[in-house]
Amino acid sequence: MSEEEGSSVSGVFWSLSPVVAITSSWQGRVNAQIAVTVVTASIVHSIPRLLVGIWKGNYTHELIINSRALAVHLLRRDQLEVVKNFGFYTGRDREKLRSVSYDKGVTGSPILRDAHSYADCRVINAMDGGDMTAFLVTVLDGGILSGGEWMTLDYFYYAAPPEWISEYGEKLSRSVALSLERIHKIDYTPWVP
Ligand SMILES: Cc1cc2nc3c(=O)[nH]c(=O)nc-3n(C[C@H](O)[C@H](O)[C@H](O)COP(=O)(O)O)c2cc1C
Fold first, then answer.
1. Which atom of ligand 1 lies nearest, measured to the CA of 61?
2. Strands, DSSP E only, in the chain?
3. 54 lines ligand 1 (CB under 6 A)
4. Ligand 1 binding pocket includes 59 (Cβ within 6 Å)
């Protein structure tokens, strides 16, 4: 198998993934970002877990590292604007949740009122990936808010205006350049609870 084929196999995990909003809060600061790197990590129905990949350059990463908590929200297909608001800009430059309604969840993370559904999670382990951290989280609370069809990355690329796609493409190129500097610098120190 070639590197190119390997890349297209891993690409499937991008395109079919749900597009989620991740929120976190630390010392009164609240923030939200978009992610597609969330997968299930438990076969025990009564102990739900997820694996959440967050890039280190993100402000949300800083809040999760410190609070050891995050909330995952599935988004509906009509929430393209939310993807732009949370996923195109950093919370270091703007208060992304200022005009967004939310409640404080059991972990302290913001729970968005307008989303498909949510899972409020506590970090129980973390693995360094150089440019990103893979957080193993346990789901402490959750609920269906509006339900319906959730958004996938494929759907976002299909439905978002072309100028949004090129704006995001430029942001992604800058993130990839940063990742290339860090991706092999993995810290193997175990995470301490
Ligand atoms: C469609 C889409 C998918 C994204 N997927 C991820 C992802 O899986 N993991 C991640 O860390 N960032 C992902 N991002 C990027 C972050 O949402 C983005 O960098 C955001 O501006 C970070 O905000 P923050 O700095 O306020 O945390 C995605 C963005 C978009 C628009």
1. 27
2. 20-26, 29-35, 38-40, 49-55, 69-74, 102-104, 110-112, 117-128, 132-144
3. yes
4. yes
pTM of the model: 0.96
pLDDT band at 186 (very low <50, low <70, confident <90, very high): very high
Q: How many helices (H) and strands (E) does the chain have?
A: 5, 9
Residue 107, ligand 1, Cβ within 6 A: no
pLDDT at residue 4 in the model: 84
Which atom of ligand 1 lies closest to the CA of 175? 19
For residue 147, give Cα distances in angstroms to 4, 20, 42, 50, 116: 37, 14, 23, 20, 5
Does any ligand 1 atom lie closer than 6 A to the CB of residue 58?
Answer: yes
> What are the tens digits of pLDDT across the range 94-106?
999 999 999 999 9
* Cβ-based neighbour number of residue 61 at 10 Å: 20
**Domains along the chain with CATH numbers:** 3-182 (2.30.110.10)
